[in-house]
Amino acid sequence: MNIDSLKPFKKKEVIIKNLVKFEQNGCRCGSWLDHWLKFSYVKVQKCVVIGCSNIDLIGCGVTKIRKKDESIYIIPMCKKHSQSEDEMKILPSCPLISADIKITCGEEQPEKTKYVEI
User: Fold this and answer.
1) Where are the alpha helices (DSSP H) in the chain?
2) CA–CA separation, 61 and 16 (whole Å)
3) DSSP state, 31?
4) Is the CB of residue 100 less than 8 Å from the CB of residue 72?
């Protein structure tokens, strides 16, 4: 047996850049935070930026850094980090939810009731 196969699985860190001027265009969820909550099926109690424990959350539009993915995603961040233009590391367990309403809230989605906490 290979000893490396016994090591716990570790997700790679996720580095994002906040789109400070990102606006809500046509989202039917009420807010970007509601959008993230609806499609992530995750309950979050604090900012997902690593090292931050602020609880004043809003949904923010972000892009991934160092990836060829140019998509815009929504994540929950505190108001302080929502104004930052710096690159930030977020919890690897935080789902990145598409901001493309054509594939999320623009379509009727079944309700899910199971949530996990991060």
Assistant:
1) 32-40, 79-82
2) 10
3) S
4) yes
Tokens of 114: 């199971």
Give the number of other Cβ atoms within 10 Å of residue 74's Cβ: 28
Q: What is the CA radius of gyration of the chain?
A: 15
Opening angle at CA 16, ends 12 and 20, nearest 5 = 165
| Whole-prediction pTM | 0.79
* Residues linked to residue 116 through DSSP beta bridges, in sequence order: 42
Query: How far apart are the C-alpha atoms of 25 and 48, rounded to whole Å?
Result: 23
pLDDT at 98 over 90: yes
Q: What is the mean pLDDT of residues 75-98?
A: 95
In 3D, which of 42, 34, 40, 92 has the Cα closest to residue 58? 34
